[in-house]
Design brief:
With 347 residues, the protein is mainly beta. It has two domains: 251 residues, Thrombin, subunit H; 88 residues, Pdz3 Domain, CATH 2.30.42.10. It is 15% helix and 39% strand. A six-stranded antiparallel β-barrel has the order 1-2-3-6-5-4. A six-stranded antiparallel beta barrel has the order 8-9-10-13-12-11. Strands 15, 16, 17, 18, 19 and 20 form a six-stranded antiparallel beta sheet that branches. Strand 2 and strand 3 form a beta hairpin. It is globular, with a radius of gyration of 21 Å. About 4% of the residues have low confidence.
Length: 347
């Protein structure tokens, strides 16, 4: 793990924090308090290693072996990470900063937000508990700290980044959140591994969990590499529910099993999952979705929200689809995505 003092000195010298031209050898009291807070924050970060089941459907896109980060959020060992790391896991391990590797179990996977929760089977030592913050008052350009957890062959790292934008985000995998955090420069983790990396504000408070690398953090069609973080504001209302049920109620919704994008007012299917409702109904890559239940959709957000208007996860969905030069009406029965996943012990 790189030195927080070095990281903060870089921040000070770039005038992002205190407007000084050069960082002092001995930081002023305010800067020292910040160093202490950020040191406590990094002490809450762990590495996460996952081996998925051999026949896991998610292995096609995520692989069988996955590595990322997590952050301790309660004294009883509860660790927050990004959920896709844990999908259909056969084995989960936590790697601490003192080079201990501990077995862990899944506590929750929340499809709606993307969060995952896990808990080591053995007591954690020398790991701090992160303070949950909020992203509501963040301003564009504000300096932030992203931390990647250790792995057996990697000590993890600390990256300086800044908030670029905060906006709704629609993922190609039937995922949408109303407020995501976009930062740049991107997390410089070994091997580019940013999955589950916690994001902290200048007070050392946890404000987000790393999800994706993005080529344009601004959403202005210009190249500015960065990361998308899921804000912890989405965790607070559902944390108790996740620990109780293993998921939130909003995760039980219709799922088609497609990967798609929206360009020029068209929803184009890029990939269809094996044995999914979409495949069973005859949809394939290259098809264009024009309408859901006769309501035209031009963006992923509109497409997903129309699907999720159905209260029952296994609802009958009517799609108007352009296949080649032919417009077709395809009726399919959606599935509950949570029921299609192989469940690790504990969920």
């Amino acid at each position: 793990m790189c030195s927080l003092r070095h990281w903060l000195c870089l921040l000070l010298s770039s005038t992002l924090l205190l407007g000084t031209a050069h960082a002092a050898t001995a930081p002023p009291p305010a800067a020292q308090a910040m160093i202490d807070a950020l040191n406590r924050a990094t002490a809450a970060v762990v590495g996460v290693k996952v081996t998925a089941m051999e026949d896991a459907r998610s292995a096609e896109t995520l692989g069988l072996r996955r590595a990322g980060s997590g952050v301790l959020i309660s004294q009883d060992g509860l660790i927050l990470t990004i959920g896709y790391l844990m999908l259909e896991a056969e084995q989960i391990e936590v790697v601490t900063q003192d080079n201990r590797t501990l077995p862990a179990r899944a506590v929750a996977y929340d499809l709606a937000t993307g969060f995952g929760l896990l808990r080591p089977l053995l007591p954690l030592r020398n790991v701090a508990v992160a303070t949950l913050g909020s992203s509501r008052d963040l301003q564009p350009g504000e300096p932030l700290m992203a931390v990647t957890g250790p792995q057996p062959d990697d000590d993890g790292d600390v990256s300086m980044t800044r908030l670029v934008s905060r906006r709704a985000f629609s993922g190609s995998w039937e995922y949408h959140i109303e407020s995501a955090l976009f930062t740049s420069p991107p997390v410089l983790a070994s091997g580019g591994n940013h999955s589950g990396a916690p994001l902290f504000n200048q007070r050392g408070e946890l404000i987000g969990i790393g999800s994706l690398f993005v080529s344009d953090a601004t959403n202005e069609n210009r190249r500015l590499p960065g990361n998308m973080f899921v804000p912890v504001d989405l965790l607070r209302p559902i944390l108790a529910e996740l620990q109780r049920s293993g998921y939130s109620a909003k995760s039980r919704r219709p799922w088609l099993g497609i990967t798609s994008n929206d360009q020029g007012g068209r929803i184009q299917i890029l990939r269809v999952s094996k044995e999914s409702p979409a495949e069973l109904a005859g949809l394939s890559a290259g098809d264009v979705v024009l309408a859901v239940d006769d309501a035209k959709v031009a963006t992923l957000e509109a497409f997903y929200k129309k699907l999720w208007d159905h209260a029952a996860p296994d609802a009958e969905i009517r799609l108007t689809v352009l296949q080649g030069a032919e417009v077709k009406t395809i009726v399919l029965r959606a599935q509950d995505r949570m029921l299609t996943l192989k469940k690790p012990p504990g969920i």
